[in-house]
Fold:
Amino acid sequence: MAQIVTIQGFEGSFHQVAARQYFGSEVGILPCATFREVVTAVQEGRVDAGLMAIENSIAGSILPNYGLLQRSGLYITGEVYLPIRQHLLVNPGVTLDDIREVHSHPIALQQCSEFLQQRHWKLVETEDTALSARRLHQHHHRHAAAVAGALAAELFGLEILVPDIHTEAQNYTRFLVLHREPAPAPAATKASICFGTRHERGSLARVLVQIAEAGINLSKLQSFPLPGTEWEYFFHADLEFDSTAPFEGLLDALKPLTTKLDVYGVYVNGRKR
Structure:
């Protein structure tokens, strides 16, 4: 029986592409309107897992999702690095000269600004790239196009009139795989932790020294204000290693240096899948 995974967005979205990349093409999808609904669906056991975007190589971190992760009680069991390829989609038979307007999510339109500015098309912002593609198909538009991915074109019977219209070739989004329980990962090469430090000189530096001395690569460090305090912070860190032994030793070394220390997940580095 295929697994059911919840995603933010609509059928044909990049979240669904990432889910297929990780779980296989037969994975079932439960679309949600918001990331909070994604987390709730996993917490309540209505799905096998959730998939949540956490950062983009151009736009940076999705900060509210770090807050959701911290409060969720869920575990990171994997990750997906997905190249974001945007295409100009049309209904069959529509040509460039037929197009009067282009529909898509505002970030997608921005990602393709150099291409879109070459023509005097009206740009129409929507909630989602895949939803734009679906509406294009449903209304049989002959003078409109959508910016979306190849899966949306496949699902809604659209043609890729111009492929790869995004400005930046190296555009990746990182997605986290979330479960209610931690998953055994004997070949794990990455971990995500959250820790707090005392509000005193050198407290964070001492933590970073321990990470370096353990031979572990700090691939991500994101700070957040600690609610109810003045100028105190907690930190989300992604750590990369060749085996889990140095990481386990690092946790013991960090406990006396931190005010809190939570492990969100130990999993396989998605860039090495």
Summary: The chain is about 30% helix and 35% strand.
